[in-house]
Amino acid sequence: MTTCWCGSTEFLPFSVEYAVCGACGTLVSLVGLTPEELTVSDDEADFYGKAYWLEHQSEDLRFPDIYKRARTDLTERNLHWLKALLKYRLPGSKVMELGCSHGSFVALLRHAGFEASGVEMSPWVVDFGKKTFNVPIYVGPVENLDIPEGSVDVIALMDVMEHLPDPVATLTHCLKLLKPDGVLLIQTPQFKREMKYTELLEANGAFLEQLKSDEHLFLFTAESATRLFRQIGAEHMQFEPAIFSRYDMFFAVSRVPLQTHAPQEVEAALMAVPNGRMTLALLDLRERELASESDRIARGEQIETLTRMVKESEADRAARGEQIETLSRIIKEVEADRAGRGEQIETLSRIIKEVEADRAGRGEQVETLSRIIKEVEADRARRNEQIYRLIARLATAEADRNAKTESVTALASSVDKLKAETAARDEEIHSLETDLRRLFGHRAFRLLAKIARWREAKKLETRIKQP
């Protein structure tokens, strides 16, 4: 299981070959070589052997090989590192560089008056550095060297910290070799937690060069590096400008507060040693080169800015030409539209006059209709009153009719009774007629009958007239 230098095994995804430690934020290789694979027993076959400095550098990484670097590093990174080191330690101090490669920085330090030596893993590289610069270089790792504790002023690790399989153990050992106020001077790639692998690929980010998973085992953030050194007892850190600031960080570390020297002190110290004037001249040349480079970069930026401004001006001019053409077309369209609108206005004015005349006529009609409506309303009110009176009379007539209907019904019932009685009497009369005819003859019977019918009719008339 992959473990971060801080002991955590909790990781966040980054790429196929790297993951971000969830505890400290360090970018950790998932496929890095083991400590055994990183040692050099066979210079012809092992990873950090001779091939690493020749074919691997030029063919795999497309960097200059060790022969070219032995020359170019002197005038570039070595002078940058020397200037930073002089800020914290003056000539005469004992300095050891771990991972010194060809040894040019060790040679420059000795030239400046430091008691300097180097350490490398490959015997072939150690032999190359000794022959090329005539400086003391030892075969590492540093843990195997017989160096008294508390005997070294400065240990420099330039592009080494990221290669250490156990950075806590190695750096703790380095602190033991330093004097109590000793300084670690370190350059290492700087990972930033906001970095995303896909975004680096899309932008071809400079940090992609540092993703060498077989050798760059731990890529620290500024925060995780600070955490590591606090953990091992070196709480005082000072970050310096990195020569390759696009992807590196450069800092000094100590167990005690860092003391610095003013430029006047540095100049005086260098003037006091045999080759100090030559070293000052080299540093001055480097400053002028940097100033020239800064001026060149500034001019380049100005040229780029002016070029961009010219392009923007050209684009703006083209855009304005298009705008002018567009506006001209719009003006023509507006003129045509204005002419059309003039005709529309005349037509609308005529229509408005007609509408005004029609409105006046309609006003008279409205007045007439209003008067008629008032008359109708008054007539309707009168008719309503008449209707109310007729309804009242109708109600009275209905009540009277109902009463008369009841009277007629009663009279009809009385008539029916009278008819029944009349029929009964007719039968009696008929019977009497029969008897009279038999007793008195036909004439007497007829006379009696008339008398009887007359009496009955009078009685009936009297009863009908009664209410």
TrEMBL record:
A GO term for molecular function: methyltransferase activity
SUPFAM superfamilies with a match to the protein in the record: S-adenosyl-L-methionine-dependent methyltransferases
Coiled-coil regions listed in the entry: none
Transmembrane segments: none
Keyword Phosphoprotein among record annotations: no
Claim: Methyltransferase is one of the keywords in the record: yes
Record's keyword terms, sorted: Methyltransferase, Transferase
Any Pfam family matching the protein: Methyltransf_23
A GO BP entry: methylation
Protein name: Methyltransferase domain-containing protein
Organism: Paraburkholderia dinghuensis
Source lineage: Bacteria, Pseudomonadati, Pseudomonadota, Betaproteobacteria, Burkholderiales
